[in-house]
Amino acid sequence: MTQDGDIPGPQRIETDVVVLGAGAVGENAAGRVVQGGLEAVLVEPALIGGECSYWACMPSKALLRPGTALQSARSVAGSREAVTGTLDARSVLERRDSFTSHWDDAGQEEWVRATGIGLVRGRAVLLGPRELRVETNDDGGPLTLVARHAVVLATGSTPVVPPIKGLDGMDYWGTREATSAHEVPQRLLVLGGGVAGTELSQAWARIGSTVTLVARHDVLDNYPEPARELVKAGLAADGVDVRTFIGADFVRGTVDGGVEMGLADGSVLAADKLLVSTGRTPALSGLGLEGLGLDAVRLASDDTGLVEGTDWLYVVGDAAGKVLLTHQGKYEARATGAAITARARGSLSGAGAPAPWSREVSTANHYAVPQVVFTDPEIAMVGRTLEQARADGVNASETSLELSVAGSALFADDYRGWAQMVVDEDRKVLVGVTFAGPGVSELLHAATIAITGEVPLERLWHAVPSYPTISEVWLRLLEKYGL
Q1: Which cysteines bridge via disulfide bonds (predicted)?
Q2: Which helix H or strand E contains 432, and what residues bound it?
Q3: 259 near 271, Cβ under 8 Å?
Q4: 50 appears as a binding residue in the annotation
Q5: How deeply is 252 buried, as exposed, middle or buried, from its count of CB atoms within 10 A (0-12, 13-18, 19+)?
Q6: Does the annotation flag 156 for ligand binding?
Q7: Is 194 annotated as a binding residue?
Q8: Confidence of residue 15 (pLDDT cuts 50, 70, 90)
């Protein structure tokens, strides 16, 4: 590698670790390896920074935030009277563009170079253990990369396209198009009631679209029912027509450039744009895994990210198919980078399992995954629901209540919220917490710490919440539980 981190080519290059995918997860894996004193090379065919930076986390939340801020002002007497208009769509989209750096990754590239990580822009295929061929973007010919210690797959995920008649070949939005669009469709039809579909339905409704959301199951069906009912009420208040527990039979284009969707009940919905958001799957195809006898659909890996049956191949983030959340992927990547470094130094042997609390393992994936739905109201959840805990064999109970404390009353007039804690009755510790309501995402890390640290409820009782804040809900939950 040259001094500034670029890879000269085309030629055969040896390095310690090769990371495929320069999104947030790949950057963290490579960064942790370099911090540990090893060399690392990132291989990326598209923008450095990946899906989260340009088409997912950042632009979607940038689209949501102005509407939430406006609603927050409208929800308090005194500021409500000062609100005289609606969102300015142009300003919302321009602000969104600023958070994506206008889809320019020069700043990300500068960070990679400054960190001492090598960079190859191109698409890689595994030739054998620790060896890859890269077709470079600059047409400089193929480059061979050889990793002395490890190859890390941080290739992210791709959308799942449902088998609906007429969809193949249709000009529709995926989440990428929905988060990067520069025009507001008058009518938007959203297929999919998961987090992305729900968030984007509300974002575009508040920016100016008339939105219909269609879902085969309930909206946000992985979350407790009282929480998702609050979100559905929020969607309805923004004019979103929510159609749940119904599938789509067909889609077709219209002569005016729009789209029609036929539902299983015989009704037909019309819109100017269709957004399909029906899940994602690990992006593993085209990497040459089949030639190594590995599954190109889903790879089994341990808590260090090491792929079963190998001593050199790791998979992290969405590509691992465990927890498809950017923050968990980055956490996995940090653990994997530390494990690779430890194994290279001989302090962690082969596929040996580190201690559960070691930095070389991502054990929180099993029991303490935090997640936020950034709708208005928000849902913030960490750990397991009551049903999940019991399915895992935990002797679990739940305590829930409406979120009604002095802090919530001050936060917004007519505040509506809900809170739940799930308790392991044998150990008397929390295994799950859910909050729903405006502004509750900022409560989440306290719950994450309580679950990860296995804080006994009797000790948690002495964590006094400040008054008057929404966090006083902790006291109310513990009191209702019986402490």
Answers
A1: 52-57
A2: strand 429-437
A3: yes
A4: no
A5: middle
A6: yes
A7: yes
A8: very high
- Two structure tokens written together for 80: 């409500």
Digit-coded pLDDT (tens) for 125-184: 999 999 999 999 887 778 999 999 999 999 999 999 999 999 998 999 999 999 999 999
d(CA 32, CA 226): 40
Cα gap 16→31, rounded to integer Å:
13
Find out whether 192 is annotated in a ligand binding site.
yes
C-alpha distance from residue 248 to each of 17, 205, 269 (Å):
45, 21, 10
Q: Compute, in degrees rounded to 10, the torsion defined by CA atoms 296, 300, 305, 310.
A: -80
The size of the chain, in residues, is 483
- Sorted by sequence, the CB contacts under 8 Å of residue 386 that are 6+ apart come out as 224, 396, 397, 398, 420, 422, 432
**Residue 155 labeled ligand binder:** yes
Q: 1 is written with which tokens?
A: 């590698």
- Tell me which residue of 181, 180, 236, 209 sits closest to 375, measured CA to CA: 236
196 belongs to an annotated ligand binding site: yes
Cβ contacts of residue 252 below 8 Å, gap of 6+? 166, 170, 259, 260
Residue 193 marked ligand-binding: yes
Helix (H, G, I), strand (E, B) or coil at 395: coil
The domains located in the chain, with CATH, are: 12-52+101-158+282-365 (3.50.50.60), 175-278 (3.50.50.60), 377-481 (3.30.390.30)
How far apart are the C-alpha atoms of 351 and 277, rounded to whole Å?
37
Q: What confidence tens digit (pLDDT) does each residue in 90-118 have?
A: 999 999 999 999 999 999 999 999 999 99
Q: Which residue has the tokens 């409820």?
A: 457
Mean pLDDT of the region 434-459: 97
286 is in an annotated binding site: no
Which residue, 302, 284, 277, 7, is CA-closest to 161?
277
Q: Find the Cα–Cα–Cα–Cα dihedral 45, 49, 51, 57, rounded to 10°.
A: 180
116 labeled binding residue: no
Contact 198, 231 (CB under 8 A): yes
Q: Report the pLDDT value the prediction gives residue 137, as an integer from 0 to 100.
A: 85
* Cβ neighbours of residue 207 closer than 8 Å, sequence gap 6 or more: 63, 67, 87, 89, 92, 93, 184
